[in-house]
Design a protein that fits this description.
By secondary structure, this protein is mostly helical. The protein is built from 7 helices and 2 strands; from the N terminus they run H-H-H-H-E-H-H-H-E. It is elongated.
């Protein structure tokens, strides 16, 4: 039996499962492997998204505006988009990002500009662009807006 990896190993399990070392996520971008400034993992990103969604759905939409999400399902999405646009556009992070110790950074390391954040927000609301990502853990919404989510 050959010791060469079978083509199905790279197709089904990715090139890492075939023994090919691609480096750590963010290495191509010049980011460290661990600690502050490294690429944020999916656990932190999903945690931040869940926190932000709960704040927008139950905290703002229902408690402050008095609108039940079941009555008008688009209102929580619009509230989410507004808070995301304002907070990421001006501070680089939402409440969920802050609690999970991550932030959205422009590729130069600073806070992203408002127009790329608007594009990023629209793509994030579409969900699918956030699910398609590269080996640096950047979704289509990150690549399009020239941003990366990093640990603080």
């Amino acid at each position: 039996m050959s010791k060469e990896p079978r083509w199905t190993q790279t197709w089904l399990g990715g090139v890492r499962s075939a023994g090919i070392d691609l480096g750590h996520p963010g290495e191509r971008l010049g980011l460290p492997e661990e600690g502050s400034g490294s690429t944020a993992g999916w656990g932190r990103r999903i945690g931040a998204l869940v926190i932000d969604w709960l704040i927008c759905t139950w905290g703002i939409t229902q408690a402050i505006l008095g609108i039940a999400p079941a009555q008008s399902p688009w209102v929580p999405a619009l509230v989410f988009a507004a808070q995301y646009l304002v907070l990421v556009g001006f501070l680089g992070q939402t409440f969920g990002h802050r609690l999970m110790n991550i932030r959205v950074a422009a590729m130069d390391g600073g806070n992203p500009r408002l127009l790329p954040v608007a594009v990023r927000t629209i793509l994030l609301l579409l969900v699918v662009p956030a699910l398609v990502f590269d080996r640096d853990q950047r979704g289509i919404h990150d690549r399009t807006s020239n941003t990366v989510v990093v640990r603080v």
